[in-house]
C-alpha cells in the first residue's frame, strides 16, 4: 500500500512536475492536433498556450474559415509560411461585392490549394453590381463556389490546367466561356445558376454532368465521353424544353422536368432514368389543378411533354398521381395512347384521405365516356398499382387495362387497409380478376399495425386472403379457413382440422 502522503498528492492531482509535455511533442503531431480543431479561428487561439504554439497554425495543409470576414481571411492567408495548401474552405457570412470577391479569390490563388471551396448565402452588397474575375488556379483540382447571385467571368489569361471537379451554385456564369479553359474537367455541377439565353456546354473530357436550372433558354450539350448525367429543368415558358443533347457514350442518365398545367391535371415533373443494361424508365408526377392555377401562357399538353423526352421509346412508365378524388382513367388512357409500347406500368395513387370531386368536375362529365375505349398495349406484361381502393372509376380502369393489354402476365394491387375482404369494393375487384384467370395477380393490403401484414391474392381466379401475424399466418383459401404457423425449419398448415408439414 502506498504511503498516506502519496495518496493525498494523487487525489489533489499535484503530483506532476509542472512541465508542458504537450508543447514538447514533435511539430508534426502538434499540427495534427491543430487540424482536428476544425477551424482556423480555433487553431489561432492556441497561440496563447505558449510560445511553442504561436504561429504554428500557419504550417497547416488544410484550412477552414467559418463565418469569416473577407479581410480577415485575406490577412490570415498572407501569414502562411508553409508550402501550398491541400484544402482551403471559406464560409463568408457578410455581403460581398464582386470586386471584394475577386480579391478573396486572388488571395486564395496565392496559396495554391488543391481543393478550394468558397460559400456564402447573404447576397451581394447594395453596390454589388459587376462581375468577379476568376483567377488562374493552375494547381486546383476541385473548385466549388456557392455565392448567391455572384456573376463570374473566366480569367483574362491562363487555364485551369489541373481542374477535374467544378461545382457552381447560385452563380451567374456562362459555361461556354469557362469550359474551354478546363481541358481536364471530368465532373461538372451547375446548380440553380443563372445561365445565358443561348447556353453552349461543350467539353471533350467531361464524364459526369449535373445540371439544374430554368429552361427558358436554348441549351446545347456536346460531350462525346460523358458517362453519367443528371438534368433537372423547370419549364417556365410556353415553348417547353429547348435543348440539343449529344452524348453517345452515356451509360446512366436522369432527365427531370418540372411543368405547369395540363388540362385538369398539373404535370408537376417528368423524369427519365437510363442505366446501361436496364430498361429505360420514365416517371411522371401529376396532381389536379384549381381555377386559380389556370393560365394559358403556362399550359402544356401531354404530347408536347412526351415529345421532349430524350428517351421517347421508354419501356417502363411510373405514374405518381395525387388524385384528390378525381377520375384519373381518362388522363392515363390518353397518356397510354401517346406511348403504347411500354412493357411495365407502375401507378402510385396518393390520397391523404378519400375525397369525391365536385359534381360539375370535368373529369366526370357525360361526354367523357372513356370506360368503353381501349388502346393496343400489346407489349405490356407487368402492371403494379399502389393505393387502389375499388371505387367504380378505378374498377373501370382495371377493366380497361385487362381489355387493352392482351399479353399481360402479372398484375399487383396494393389496397388500403380500409378495404376488407368482406367489403363490396373488395368483392368487385375480385370479380374483375376472376374474369382473367390467365393473369397472375396479387393484391396486397397495407398493414393495420406493425405486428400484422395483410395480403390478398388471386391465383387463376382462386381467392387467397392472408394475414401475417407474429405467431403465424391466418389464411382463407377458396373459402376454407386455415392457420399457417411459421417456424424456423418448417411451415405447419392446419385446414379444417387436417394438418400437414411442409419443409422450407
Describe this entry's structure for a reader.
This protein is an alpha/beta fold and 504 residues long. The protein is 18% helix and 33% strand. It is built from 10 helices and 28 strands. The chain starts with a helix and ends with a strand. The C terminus is likely disordered. Pfam families: F-box (PF00646), FBD (PF08387). This is F-box domain-containing protein. InterPro entries: F-box-like_dom_sf, F-box_dom, FBD, FBL15-like.
**Structural class designation:** alpha/beta
- Mean pLDDT comes to 73
Number of strands: 28
Distance between the termini: 65 Å
Oligomer: single chain
Radius of gyration: 32 Å
- Residue stretches low in confidence (pLDDT < 50, at least 5 long) are 5-14, 260-264, 290-300, 447-504
Region (Disordered): 1-21
InterPro entries: F-box-like_dom_sf, F-box_dom, FBD, FBL15-like
Protein name: F-box domain-containing protein
Pfam families: F-box (PF00646), FBD (PF08387)
Summarize the model shown.
The protein is 18% helix and 33% strand. With 504 residues, it is α/β, with parallel strands linked by helices.
Keywords:
alpha/beta, 28 strands, F-box_dom, 23-stranded mixed sheet, 10 helices, FBD
Layout of helices and strands:
Layout: H1 4-12, H2 27-35, H3 40-45, E1 62-68, H4 70-78, E2 87-92, H5 98-110, E3 115-120, E4 132-133, E5 142-147, E6 152-153, E7 165-169, H6 175-178, E8 187-191, E9 198-202, E10 208-214, E11 218-222, E12 228-234, E13 243-246, E14 252-258, E15 261-262, E16 265-275, E17 281-288, H7 302-307, E18 316-322, H8 329-338, E19 344-350, E20 382-386, H9 392-404, E21 410-415, H10 424-434, E22 440-445, E23 453-459, E24 462-469, E25 472-477, E26 480-486, E27 490-495, E28 498-503
Parallel strand pairs: 1-2, 2-3, 3-5, 4-6, 5-7, 7-8, 8-10, 9-11, 10-12, 11-13, 12-14, 17-18, 18-19, 19-20, 20-21, 21-22
Antiparallel strand pairs: 14-16, 15-16, 16-17, 22-23, 23-24, 24-25, 25-26, 26-27, 27-28
Organism: Paspalum notatum var. saurae
Region (Disordered): 1-21
Domain F-box: 22-60
Amino acid at each position: 500500500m502506498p504511503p498516506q502522503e502519496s495518496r493525498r498528492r494523487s487525489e489533489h492531482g499535484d503530483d506532476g512536475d509542472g512541465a508542458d509535455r504537450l508543447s514538447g511533442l514533435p511539430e508534426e503531431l502538434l499540427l495534427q492536433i491543430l487540424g482536428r480543431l476544425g477551424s482556423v479561428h480555433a487553431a489561432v487561439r492556441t497561440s496563447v498556450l505558449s510560445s511553442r504554439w504561436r504561429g504554428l497554425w500557419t504550417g497547416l495543409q488544410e484550412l477552414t474559415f467559418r463565418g469569416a470576414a473577407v479581410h480577415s481571411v485575406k490577412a490570415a492567408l498572407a501569414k502562411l509560411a508553409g508550402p501550398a495548401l491541400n484544402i482551403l474552405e471559406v464560409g463568408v457570412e457578410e455581403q460581398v461585392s464582386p470586386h471584394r470577391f475577386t480579391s478573396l479569390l486572388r488571395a486564395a490563388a496565392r496559396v495554391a490549394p488543391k481543393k478550394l471551396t468558397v460559400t456564402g448565402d447573404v447576397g451581394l452588397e447594395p453596390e454589388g453590381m459587376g462581375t468577379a474575375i476568376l483567377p488562374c488556379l493552375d494547381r486546383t483540382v476541385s473548385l466549388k463556389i456557392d455565392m448567391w447571385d455572384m456573376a463570374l467571368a473566366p480569367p483574362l489569361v491562363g487555364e485551369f490546367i489541373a481542374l477535374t471537379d467544378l461545382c457552381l451554385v447560385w452563380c451567374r456564369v456562362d459555361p461556354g466561356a469557362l469550359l474551354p479553359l478546363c481541358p481536364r474537367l471530368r465532373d461538372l455541377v451547375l446548380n440553380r445558376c443563372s445561365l445565358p439565353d443561348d447556353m453552349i456546354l461543350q467539353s471533350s473530357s467531361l464524364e459526369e454532368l449535373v445540371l439544374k436550372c430554368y429552361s427558358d433558354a436554348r441549351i446545347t450539350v456536346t460531350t462525346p465521353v460523358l458517362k453519367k448525367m443528371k438534368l433537372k429543368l423547370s419549364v417556365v415558358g410556353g415553348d417547353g424544353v429547348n435543348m440539343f443533347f449529344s452524348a453517345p457514350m452515356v451509360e446512366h442518365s436522369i432527365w427531370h422536368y418540372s411543368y405547369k398545367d395540363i388540362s385538369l391535371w398539373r404535370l408537376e415533373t417528368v423524369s427519365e432514368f437510363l442505366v446501361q443494361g436496364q430498361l429505360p424508365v420514365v416517371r411522371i408526377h401529376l396532381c389536379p389543378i384549381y381555377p386559380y392555377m389556370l393560365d394559358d401562357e403556362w399550359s402544356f399538353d401531354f404530347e408536347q411533354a412526351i415529345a421532349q423526352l430524350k428517351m421517347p421509346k421508354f419501356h417502363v412508365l411510373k405514374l405518381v398521381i395525387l388524385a384528390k378524388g378525381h377520375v384519373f382513367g381518362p388522363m392515363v388512357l390518353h397518356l397510354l395512347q401517346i406511348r403504347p409500347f411500354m412493357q411495365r406500368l407502375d401507378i402510385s395513387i396518393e390520397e391523404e384521405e378519400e375525397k369525391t370531386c365536385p359534381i360539375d368536375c370535368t373529369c366526370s362529365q357525360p361526354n367523357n365516356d372513356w370506360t368503353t375505349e381501349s388502346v393496343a398495349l400489346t407489349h405490356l406484361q407487368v402492371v403494379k398499382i399502389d393505393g387502389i381502393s375499388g371505387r367504380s372509376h378505378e374498377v373501370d380502369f382495371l377493366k380497361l387495362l385487362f381489355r387493352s393489354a392482351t399479353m399481360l402476365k402479372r398484375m399487383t394491387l396494393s389496397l388500403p387497409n380500409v378495404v376488407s375482404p368482406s367489403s363490396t369494393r373488395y368483392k368487385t375487384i375480385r370479380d374483375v380478376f376472376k374474369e382473367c384467370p390467365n393473369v397472375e395477380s396479387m393484391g396486397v393490403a397495407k398493414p393495420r399495425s406493425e405486428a400484422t401484414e395483410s395480403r390478398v391474392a388471386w391465383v387463376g381466379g382462386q381467392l387467397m386472403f392472408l394475414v401475417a401475424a407474429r405467431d403465424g399466418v391466418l389464411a382463407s383459401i377458396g373459402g376454407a379457413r386455415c392457420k399457417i404457423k411459421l417456424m424456423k425449419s418448417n411451415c405447419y398448415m392446419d385446414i379444417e382440422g387436417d394438418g400437414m408439414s411442409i419443409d422450407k
